[in-house]
C-alpha cells in the first residue's frame, strides 16, 4: 500500500505517525509546501517572545521520519488531485500515485484587499510570518505597532509586542474582544488587562485606507501613525485543491465535508484538521475547529479507517484556552446564550472578584458551557459532566452560594 498525506501540521503528522504504528511495511509519503520541518503553530507567540527555542518549536525532527521510514517532501506544492487515477501532481511536474490519500491542507491568513499592494504588511499565521516580523522589528527600530483583529491571535500578538517594549495599537471592528469565545463580562475583564498593559484599544474601527508610510485612516475619519501593521483577522481554509477534485465542500462554512470516519465523498480520500467541517458534540451542528488536540485526534482516527479498522470520530467540544497578559483563561461550549435566560431556558451562575471571573450556563440541569478567566479549576470534570450530560447542580451546589 502507498499512503499519501498532503500537509505536515498536526493532523497530517498524526495520521502519518499512526499509520506507521499500525502498518510497519507500507509506503508513507508526506508532502508539504512549507520549507521547514513540522512546527507547532500554537506556540508561535512564545517563539517570537523568545520564551522557547526554535528547536522546541519544531515538534518532529528529521530523524523521526528517517527512523519511521516516512518520506517527507518539503517545499513541494501539490496543484492537482486526480481521484479517478489515484494520482496527484506537483507544481514541479512530479506525479505521485496513492492507494489512500489524507488531506491536511490547513488554513491561510486572511488579508483584506485594501492592503494587497502595500509592502511590509504582516500576518501572524506561520513560522515564516514570525521570522519576518522579528527581522523587521530588529532592522527598523520599531517603536509603535498596530495589530488588527479582536480574536485570540490578535491578543497574543499584542501581548508579546507589548512585552517587547513596543507601543501597541489594537484595532477591532466590533465593540467586544473575542466575541465568539467571551461574553460581555469576560470581554470587559480582558479589556482591563489590555489597558493595564498600556495597549491602545481602538474599538468599532473600520480601516478605510493605509498609506505607504503606514498612516492608517479609518471610516470615521480618524487616523493613527504606526511603524508596522500586523493583520490577525482570521483564516481561510485551503479548500481549492479539494474542490477542483470534486471533493464536497460546505458552501456555508468553506470546509471539506467528512463523515464520522473522517472520510470525504471520495471513498479512498480522507481529511482532517483546520480544513474540515466537523460535528459540534453539544449541538450536533457542523462547525470549523482550529485546535491542535482535535486536529491530532482527527489524524489518528483517519489513519485507523484508512487501514480498514473502523473508528468513529465523535465530534468536537468547542474549547479555546490560552494565557494572555499573564492571565489564563478557558472558554468551553456555549458561552453566549444569555438571551435564552430571559425565556427561562438557561440558568446562569457567575462567580467573580477583581482577580477572576467564572461563568456556567446550565440548561435542563445540564452544563452546556463555561468560562474561566484568571483562575482555572476543575476543567476536566466540567468537560466530563458536559459530555456525559450529568446533573451539574448535584456536583457543584457551592457555585449557587
Entry summary:
This protein is of the alpha/beta class and 401 residues long. It is 26% helix and 28% strand.
| Helical run tally | 12
Terminal-residue CA separation:
61 Å
* Overall average pLDDT: 93
**Percent range for β-strand residues:** 25-35%
The largest β sheet comes out as:
5 strands, parallel
Description:
Helix content is 26%, strand content 28%. The protein has three domains: 179 residues, FAD/NAD(P)-binding domain (3-Layer(bba) Sandwich), CATH 3.50.50.60; 121 residues, FAD/NAD(P)-binding domain (3-Layer(bba) Sandwich); 75 residues, FAD/NAD-linked reductase, C-terminal dimerisation domain (Enolase-like, domain 1, 2-Layer Sandwich), CATH 3.30.390. The radius of gyration is 23 Å and the shape is globular. It has 401 residues and is of the alpha/beta class. The strands form seven sheets. Strands 3-2-1-7-19 form a five-stranded parallel sheet. Strand 4 and strand 5 form a beta hairpin. It contains twelve helices and 26 strands. About 1% of the residues have low confidence.
Keywords:
401 residues, alpha/beta, FAD/NAD(P)-binding domain, Enolase-like, domain 1, 5-stranded parallel β-sheet, 28% strand
Please specify the SSE layout and strand pairing.
Blueprint: E1 2-6, H1 10-22, E2 27-31, H2 44-49, H3 54-57, H4 62-67, E3 70-73, E4 78-82, E5 87-90, E6 95-97, E7 100-103, E8 107-109, E9 121-123, H5 127-140, E10 144-148, H6 152-163, E11 167-171, H7 184-196, E12 200-202, E13 207-210, E14 215-218, E15 223-225, E16 228-231, E17 235-237, H8 240-244, E18 256-257, E19 269-271, E20 276-279, E21 286-288, H9 292-306, E22 319-324, E23 327-333, H10 338-341, E24 346-352, E25 357-363, E26 366-373, H11 379-388, H12 392-395
Parallel strand pairs: 1-2, 1-7, 2-3, 7-19, 9-16, 10-11, 10-16, 11-12, 18-20
Antiparallel strand pairs: 4-5, 5-6, 8-17, 13-14, 14-15, 20-21, 22-23, 23-26, 24-25, 25-26
Helix pairs in contact: 1-9
